């Protein structure tokens, strides 16, 4: 049975944290059942983990190429795995796949966080073994202490929202094409098998469907990634992207982006990269090389936006709000961070490592698609990319009740002056209005219709900057109203 992940990317540390990966050079069923129990209990809501048999490790990091397993041993190990599942209370069956890596046989075991946690596993497989809870502490599987046991029992009452069955949908609401595209993009071996599998079986293997076999339903994460209109089920699963012409907040254009989470995220980033991010070449005296800077470094924008998609609540109806002002980008999502991250920590810490995740399954899919970091490097990436670009430090904020999370990326200082620079249409309008002109004529000159939104976008900003003035200032809505370039506007033209 093929896994719906890219095994080589996981082993190379490209998609998940090392704490979620355990490698064993050989087969040791007692160690394995402890690790299965710890990953299935998923005390940190990481989304479980992966075990690789036939791969040595050093300091918690896989050593490649693998040592491998004897081909003849694979069937026996898989039979023992099946027996181990019956020793777990309640019953739990991980998903596993024999895999050929660098010419060597290994066994990959996927252990998602279990729906019926907490799980107990035998301390030893001998006759004196007792069933106990196991958890992950760092990169080790250990017996839970009393505090961890209490936490596991509390967590049993709560299944993360993205991992819950959606009772207002049906299995046919999952789009087969979107699922196959995902598997092909991450280069999962399951992509080939999927072509010959019924949707219900594929959805179960992907763990994006659950419930009774006779009444299989999509999980929320399945609808977020693999339905055409997630906002049909989650009204807030969309993004409000606003491009402001000035800092007043009154002149703007707005786009509402919808669709599967991964497409929505990519469309947001593509729009910002095309329409917002700009490059400037600066000649530094006494140096041959030129310096290239950006108003907003793309790496920082990608991390801030992806973070909003990953950590927001899809139970709330509020969309992600992205406001692009001339001097900053603001990304607002709801609610705020999970404890222990606080307002004070956000203000002073540059490396924030979350140990609790609101959407563990959403995060796993985004990591597989390489749309967000898998190694807790999001905040350092933002700070580093802003610093390398010569930009001011980012600002992160929430309130005392954790009702929102706000990330602000200030513009590079070299672009502050350019906020006052003339666009091509500004030049056309100001040149044309050296002698007074009516609104209809002005918009016709720049090849636009006499529509209110065109007036608000192209004429009003020039008035607010003092470059264009009313000829009848006391009656701005008069049908005789005309517009004329001011002395300030003429100076801007000369510059």
TrEMBL record:
**Residue span, Schlafen AlbA-2 domain:** 17-143
Q: Which residues form the Filamentation induced by cAMP protein Fic-like C-terminal domain?
A: 435-483
Read off the Gene3D superfamilies from this record.
3.30.565.60, Schlafen, AAA domain (3.30.950.30), Winged helix-like DNA-binding domain superfamily/Winged helix DNA-binding domain (1.10.10.10)
Per its UniProt record, what Pfam families does this chain match? Answer: Fic-like_C, HATPase_c_4, SLFN_AlbA_2
Q: Which PANTHER family match?
A: GLPR-RELATED TRANSCRIPTIONAL REPRESSOR (PTHR30595), SCHLAFEN ALBA-2 DOMAIN-CONTAINING PROTEIN (PTHR30595:SF6)
Entry protein name? Transcriptional regulator
Q: Which organism is it from?
A: Niabella ginsenosidivorans
């Amino acid at each position: 049975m093929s896994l719906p992940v890219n095994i080589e990317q996981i082993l190379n540390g490209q998609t998940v944290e090392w704490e979620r990966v355990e490698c064993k050079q050989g087969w040791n069923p007692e160690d394995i059942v402890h690790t299965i129990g710890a990953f299935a209990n998923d005390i940190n809501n990481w989304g479980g983990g992966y075990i690789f048999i036939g791969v040595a490790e050093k300091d918690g990091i896989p050593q490649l190429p693998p040592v491998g397993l004897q081909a003849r041993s694979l069937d026996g190990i898989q039979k023992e795995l099946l027996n181990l599942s019956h020793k777990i209370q309640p019953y739990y069956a991980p998903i596993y796949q024999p895999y050929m890596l660098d010419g060597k046989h290994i066994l990959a075991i996927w252990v998602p966080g279990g729906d019926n946690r907490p799980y107990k596993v035998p301390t030893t497989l001998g006759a004196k073994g007792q069933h106990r809870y196991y958890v992950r502490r760092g990169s080790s599987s250990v017996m839970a202490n009393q505090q961890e046991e209490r936490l596991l029992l509390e967590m049993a009452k709560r299944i993360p929202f993205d991992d819950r069955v959606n009772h207002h949908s049906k299995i046919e609401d999952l789009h087969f094409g979107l699922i196959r595209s995902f598997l092909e993009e991450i280069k999962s071996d399951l992509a080939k098998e999927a072509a010959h599998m019924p949707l219900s079986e594929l959805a179960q293997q992907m763990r994006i469907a659950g419930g009774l076999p006779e009444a299989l339903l999509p999980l929320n994460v399945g609808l977020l990634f693999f339905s055409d209109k997630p906002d049909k089920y989650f009204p807030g699963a969309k993004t409000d992207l606003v491009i402001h012409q000035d800092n007043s907040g009154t002149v703007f254009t707005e786009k509402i982006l919808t669709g599967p989470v991964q497409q929505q995220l990519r469309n947001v980033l593509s729009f910002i990269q095309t329409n917002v991010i700009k490059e400037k070449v600066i000649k530094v005296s006494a140096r041959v090389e030129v310096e290239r800077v950006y108003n907003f470094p793309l790496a920082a924008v990608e991390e801030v936006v992806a973070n909003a998609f990953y950590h927001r609540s899809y139970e709330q109806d509020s969309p992600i709000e992205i406001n692009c002002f001339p001097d900053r980008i603001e990304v607002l999502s709801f609610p705020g961070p999970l404890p222990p991250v606080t307002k004070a920590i956000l203000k002073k810490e540059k490396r924030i490592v979350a140990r609790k995740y609101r959407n563990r399954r959403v995060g796993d899919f985004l990591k597989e698609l390489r749309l967000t970091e898998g190694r807790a490097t999001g905040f350092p990436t933002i700070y580093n990319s802003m610093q390398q670009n010569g930009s001011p430090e980012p600002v992160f904020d929430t309130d005392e009740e954790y009702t929102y999370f706000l990330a602000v990326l200030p513009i590079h200082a070299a672009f502050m002056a350019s906020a006052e620079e003339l666009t091509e249409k500004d030049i056309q309008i100001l040149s044309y209005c050296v002698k007074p002109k009516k609104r209809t004529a002005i918009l016709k000159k720049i090849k636009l219709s006499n529509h209110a939104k065109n007036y608000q976008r192209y004429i009003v900003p020039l008035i607010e900057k003092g470059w264009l003035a009313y000829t009848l200032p006391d009656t701005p809505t008069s049908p005789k109203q005309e517009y004329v370039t001011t002395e300030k506007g003429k100076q801007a033209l000369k510059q």
